Amino acid sequence: MKISNIQNEIVEEFDIFDTWMDKYEYLIELGKSVPKISDQNKSEDNIIKGCQSKVWLHAEKEDGLIKFYADSDAIITKGIISLLIRTFSNQNPTDIINANTDFIDKIGLRQHLSANRANGLNNMIKKIKYYAIAFSKLN
Amino acid sequence: MIFNMNVLKNIELIRKDFPILSTKVNGNQLIYLDNAATSQTPNCVIESISDYYKNLNSNIHRGVHKLSQLATEKYEESRKKFKKHFNARSTSEIIFTPGTTHSINLISNGFIKFLKKDDEIIVSQLEHHSNIVPWQMLCEKTGAIMKVIPMNEKGELDLNVFATLLNDKTKVVFVNHVSNALGTVNPIDIIIEKSHNAGAAVLIDGAQAAPHFEIDVKKLNVDFYVCSAHKLCGPTGVGILYGKKEWLEKLPPYQGGGEMIDQVSFEKSTYADLPNKFEAGTPNISGVIASGIGLDYINKIGLTNIKEYEDYLLDYATSKLKEIDGIKIYGESKTKVSVISFNIGEIHPYDIGSVIDNLGIAVRTGHHCAQPIMDYFDIPGTIRISFSFYNTIEEINILIDALKKASKMLS
Ligand SMILES: Cc1ncc(COP(=O)(O)O)c(C=O)c1O
User: Fold this and answer.
1) Which of A9, A58, B237, B289 could, after both became Cys, cross-link A41 (CB 3.0–4.6 A)?
2) Does the CB of A118 have a partner CB in chain B at under 8 Å?
3) pTM of structure
4) Best residue among B180, B182, B227 to mutate for probing ligand 1, ranked by most atoms within 8 Å of CB
């Protein structure tokens, strides 16, 4: 599926919930379903700075598509990660580089994220785009 | 627990003095439990700042004109208030700085003059980064060695080990009076006495102590005592540094500039007398004046009343928290101020903090600028709640409900 379609799908899913509490609960559920990443990929190099919780992000390229693997020691952060992985994993570098990332705002979550966490989220998106740029240059 | 009922009766009146306490967060009444980071500001302090800019604004210590004289008087009046409050011998022992961090840097930097390679300095494991890093920089510059007083499982310092660290190479010992991360009140009287017996100077970081109980620097016989006005109902950007006159006279100035000089020529300048020697440039005049008003406000309620009431809140909250499944409280010293650090089960403190923030409850999560303590317990951080005299039992009840809700959501 195209990135923008996945994003619309996510926005629609969150639209069902009226309160931030319900949205949070959904996010926590999503967080619990993120597959664990290997200890080897939980390296210092893969840590994203700017988060109070630890976030690891690892990427690999397979058949022209980038696969993202990520983890965090905080569950809400993991929920956010799951949305990013669902959106950006298995996409080609060019689409990732050109993707809009305002779907997080559309979900109505950003005002419920602390400044620190919002900053962490921006850093995650930045790192995802960096990976895409790096992999596109490797072609 | 017996406490002064009058304090309780007045609590609603006291709360009215703090406009921010009626703020709504996300539709919920704000519950402010991050007082160890910064205390809220009463109307009289806010008005003092606005009054200064409306009626007094001018530079101090230099103008012949009326406004400058009035502003100087008010500024110096504030110094007198802090001198009296901490029982210093004279006003020249009270220096105004931008904060605790700045004060510690001022002292540690001055000690370059007194340290040589292989001299020793002693810190505790319970310190805020502000009382670690400036001294590490001092070690880098001088080749001195830093030793650490360890703590135990309860968050108390091990004084037996401390005794073995002291020797004739020890030049300075720097410990906090109260730990910001755990709330432990340290036995600084013993630390000061033992350090002095070994010939070492002592700096006490009182940032977390000054808001909670009386401090008598003369009785403590401490060499340096530092704290921040923004934790004492004052504005941000003002620190109070007490130093024994003998020490302050020996220490070199930290910054050069106007106000701190006696005579200046290109060959050589001579420095002003205390306290001006350490107050280069135009200080935070309105802030210093307002800090004095904040101190007056605290003293009007009375630190004895404050301590009694906060102890009551601390006991109540501690026993209520212990009813929550999986809770682990860090820092269980017998002597504590109203600070509680904890985690619930395996839940990340940041997750709990985020959920209860949405419910309008302000707490601190993370390592609280005290990573060595977190390393000791092998945790990424804690949730820290810290009470002031304007917090209530009702707020604690709402917090407990919110924590239970958050814990259910997150487990
Ligand atoms: C024990 C302790 N020391 C030092 C500081 C630093 O104070 P400031 O940020 O006002 O310089 C704090 C502030 O949290 C503290 O709690």
Assistant:
1) A58
2) no
3) 0.93
4) B180
Give me the pLDDT at residue A138, please. Answer: 77
Min Cα distance B401 → chain A (Å) is 15
Smallest CA-to-CA distance from B161 within B199, B192, B191, B205 is with B191
Classified as helix, coil or strand, B344 is: strand
**Is the pLDDT assigned to residue A44 strictly greater than 90?**
no
Residue bearing tokens 């969150």: A14
Q: How far is A105 from chain B (nearest CA, A)?
A: 17
Residue A54 annotated among the catalytic residues of the structure: no
pLDDT tens digits, residue range A103-114?
A: 888 887 777 776
Taking the domains of chain A in order of start, what are their residue ranges? 3-138
More reliable by pLDDT, A45 or A9: A9
**Helix, strand, or coil (residue B214):** coil
B272 alpha carbon – ligand 1 mean position (Å) = 29
Architecture of the domain delimited by B5-32+302-410: Alpha-Beta Complex (3.90)
d(CA B288, CA B234) in angstroms, rounded, equals: 9
Report ipTM (2 d.p.): 0.86
Q: Cβ(B382) to ligand 1 under 6 A?
A: no
Backbone angles phi, psi at A72, to 5 degrees: -150, 155
Instruction: Look up residue B348 and give its two tokens.
Output: 């990340």
What are the domain boundaries of chain B?
5-32+302-410, 46-296
CATH architecture of residue range(s) B46-296: 3-Layer(aba) Sandwich (3.40)
Question: Phi/psi at B328 (nearest 5 deg)?
Answer: -130, 120
Q: What is the pLDDT of residues B234-271, one digit of tens each?
A: 999 999 999 999 999 999 999 988 888 888 888 888 88
Pairing of strands B120-124, B94-97: unpaired
**At the topology level of CATH, where does A3-138 sit?**
Sufe protein. Chain: A (3.90.1010)
